[in-house]
C-alpha cells in the first residue's frame, strides 16, 4: 500500500518465509495500560469500601447480625466440610496451575504470581497493623469481630489475599476452566469464614480488592509477558486462510511501535507464490492500547464526538474496520478491497487488503500536489459523506495515489458509519487543514469549494479549531506557532537595535550642534524607537493557518458562521480544580470541625479585628504601587487601585497566579499601554515580586531559626530547606529535558521583561515605587495575620508570622484552586501550629485573616469589576 512495498516486490525470493526490512526484536515484557486502569479501579474500590464502613454504621451492624442469624441455622457438618474443602482447595489449585504452566514452559507467569503473592501478604500485614493501631473505631468494627476462640478476627485474610494476587497475576482468570474453579474456591472459602464467624463481609471485600489490586500493580510495574505475534506467525496465519506467502516486508517504520500516537497496527507487504502481492495490517492488544488514555480523555472531555476504539475489544475493532472498508467501497469511494480477516490467537487479528502500488500524500513533494489531485481527494470525501461515513483520520498518510493518478483513501480503523453532522464537518475541517499545511489556505479552500460547494465548506468553519483536529495536525500547528512567535521576537529585537543606533546617531548630531544634552532629543529618540518596534511587529505578524482558511472561506461565503462550536464538555483545568478543591475542602473541613464558631465570634477582640480590616485595605494600595512601578507610561493611580480590588472578584473564578496577571494585563492595555509592553510590565512585576518573595522568605527563615539561639547559626530546618533547593537545582541542571524546559521558559520571559526593566531603571522614582509597593504589600499581609492572631489572644514573633505567610502564599499561588482556596488555609494553620501557636487560636485566626483578605473583598471586587467594565477600562 506504500511506495516501500513497491520497491520490495521485485526483490529476490530466495526461499519461503523470508522476511525483508527491519523487523525489530519484540521486547520480552510490556506495560499494559489496562493493568494500570485496573490498579486505579482497585484502589478506588478499597477507598469506597472503607468510606462505607466508616459512615454506614447501621448497614454494617445489620448485615453482620443477619449473617450471624443465618450461621446459627446452618448445619455444623456443612460448615466444617466447607472450611476443610476450601482450605485444601486454596492450596492445591494454585499449585496445580503452576505445574500446568511449567509443563507448557511458561515459568515467567509463575514468577509474576509469586512476586504478587509476596507483595499482597506485605500489604495485608500493613493493613492489619493500620486497622489495629490507627483506623477509626467504625472501620475496626466493620472489618473485625470477636473470634470464636477469643480476641478479634484479622481485618484482612493474610492467606487469601496472596492467593488471589497469585491467581490474578498468572492469568488464571483468562482460562475458562480454571476461572470456574477459581470462583468456586473463592465462594467456598468466603462461605466458610463468614458462617464460621471468622470474618465480616467488609473484610472479605477488602481482602479480594487488595489481592486484585496488588496483582495488577505488580503486572504493570514489572510488565506482562509480550504475546505480540511476529511476522513469522503472520505468514503462518495467511496459510491458514488459503494464501501461499513467500516473503513479508515491514512497510511502516519500526520506530512507530514505540510511538504513543500509533494505534493503527503494523503494516506488511506480503509477496505470494502466485498472484499479486497483499497488504496486511496486523493489530494486537499492545498496538491497540497505544494512546488509550488519550482516547479515553477525548471521549470524556468532548461533546458529540464518539471515540469507540478506546473501549473496543480486538474482535470489535476487526469488525468495525471490515465494515468501514466494505461501506466505503459501496459508497463509491476508492478504497483498498478487503480480501480476508482472521484472528492470530487471542491477542491479535489481521486484515488482508488488495495491494495498491502507489505513494501516500506525505511522500509526495509539494509541487506534485496539484489542484486536480486535491479535487480528486475531495471527490472521495464527498462520496463518503453522501453515505454519512466519517473517516476521522484524513491526514496526508491516509491518502494514496497510484501510478495512474487515481486517489485511494486508506486507514478506516477510526471511522464511523451513520455519522452525525458534527463528525462529518470535522472531516472537512481536517482535510482543509491537511491541504493547507502543504499548499496554503487559498488553494486548499478553492479545491474544496469546487467539489463540495461553498455551503458545505462554510458549515465546517465552527469546527475549524485545534481541538477538533487530529493529534498530529495539532502538533504541527503548535510547532508553526512557535516558529512564528520566534520570528516576531527576532524582528522586534532587530527593530529595537536599529532604533537605538539611529537615535544614538541623531543625538550625537544634536549634541554636536547644541553643545549639550537635550531632554527633547531623548524623548524624540525614545518615541522613534517605540514606533520602529511597533511597526516591525506589525510587519512581522503572521496570520495562523486556521485564520487564513477562515478568511478564504468568508471571501466565498461572507455570511458563514465563524463562531467556534463548543466541543469541550470539560477542560483539564476544570478537572484539576475540582480535585484540588475537593481535597482542599476536606482538609479545611477537618480543621473547622474542631472550631466552636460561637466562641470564635464572641471571643474575638474587635479592636484587633478593625486593625485587620485596615491592613487588608492597605494591601490594595500597595499592590497598585508595585504594579505602576514597572509601567513607565502614565496610568491613573486611583483607577489602578480599583483594578486591584476587582482582582479580588477574579480570584473566585481563576487561580490566584493566573487571574491577577490576566486582569492587570488587560487593564494596562485599556489604559493605553501597548499589548507587548503591558505583558512585559506585568511580567517584570511578577518576576521582581518572585525574587523579592524568595529573598524575604530566606531572610525571615534565617531569623526564625536564630531567634531562640544565642548564636547566629541557622536552624536545621533552614539548612535542610537550602540543601533541598540546591539539590533540586542540580537535578534540573543535570537532566537535559528539565534543563531545556527551564531555559526555554526563562528565555521567553526575559525576552520581553529585560527591555522593560531597562526602561524602568532609567526612572528611579518608578523603580522605588515598585520596590516600596512590594515591601508594603508583604508587610500589610504580615501585619493583618499578626493582628488576626492577637484578636484571639495569641502572639508570635514577626519573623515567624512572615515565614508562615510567605510559605502559605507561595502554596496558594501554585494551587489550581480559585484564590488558593483550601491550600492557603491548611498551610497557614499548619505553619502557625508548627511555630508553637495553639490550634484553638491558629484556626480562628487564619479564618479571620482569610475573611479580611479573600471573602470580604468579593462584593467590592464585583462592584469594581463591573464599574471598570462599563467604563471600558477592562
From TrEMBL:
Is Cell membrane among this UniProt entry's keywords? yes
Which residue ranges does the record annotate as region Disordered?
1-24, 489-528
Task: State the superkingdom.
Answer: Bacteria
Where is it chiefly localized?
membrane
Where does this protein have coiled-coil stretches?
Answer: none
Q: Which InterPro entries match?
A: Kinase-like_dom_sf, L-PG_synthase/AglD
Membrane topology recorded in Swiss-Prot or TrEMBL = Multi-pass membrane protein
Compositional bias, Basic and acidic residues, is annotated for 489-503, 519-528
**Which NCBIfam families does UniProt cross-reference here?**
flippase-like domain (TIGR00374)
Q: What name has this protein been given in UniProt? A: Lysylphosphatidylglycerol synthase domain-containing protein
> What does the record give as the organism's lineage?
Bacteria, Bacillati, Actinomycetota, Actinomycetes, Kitasatosporales
